[in-house]
C-alpha cells in the first residue's frame, strides 16, 4: 500500500520545502547586503548579482511545483529578468574602478 503524498500528510512541511530555493537566494542576497553594510561594497554587490543569476538558473531548471515563490510570471520572463538584472549588477560592480 502506498503512502499519500507529502502535501496531504503534512501540508505545512511541504509548503516550507517548496520555498527552499527562494530561501537560498534570500540568504545569499542578505549576505551580500551585509557585506555592503560592512563596507565591502564590491564583493557584496557581486554576491547579490550572482545570487540573482543563481535564482534565474533555479527558475529555469526546477519544475513549477518545486520553485515556490521564485515563480512570479511566466518562466521565460522570470529567467530573462532575473538573469539580466544579475548580469548587469555584476558587470557594473566589476566595471566601477
TrEMBL record:
UniProt xrefs under Pfam families: DUF3017 (PF11222)
UniProt keyword terms in alphabetical order: Membrane, Transmembrane, Transmembrane helix
Transmembrane regions listed in the UniProt entry: 20-38, 44-64, 76-96
InterPro entries: DUF3017
Top-level taxon of the source organism: Bacteria
Name this polypeptide is given: DUF3017 family protein
Lineage of origin: Bacteria, Bacillati, Actinomycetota, Actinomycetes, Geodermatophilales
Amino acid at each position: 500500500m502506498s503512502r499519500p503524498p507529502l502535501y496531504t500528510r503534512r501540508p505545512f512541511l511541504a509548503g516550507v520545502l517548496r520555498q527552499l530555493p527562494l530561501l537560498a537566494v534570500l540568504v545569499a542576497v542578505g549576505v551580500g547586503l551585509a557585506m555592503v553594510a560592512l563596507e565591502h561594497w564590491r564583493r557584496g554587490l557581486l554576491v547579490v548579482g550572482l545570487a540573482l543569476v543563481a535564482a534565474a538558473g533555479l527558475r529555469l531548471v526546477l519544475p513549477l511545483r518545486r520553485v515556490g515563490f521564485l515563480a512570479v510570471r511566466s518562466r521565460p520572463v522570470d529567467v530573462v529578468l532575473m538573469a539580466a538584472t544579475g548580469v548587469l549588477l555584476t558587470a557594473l560592480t566589476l566595471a566601477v574602478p
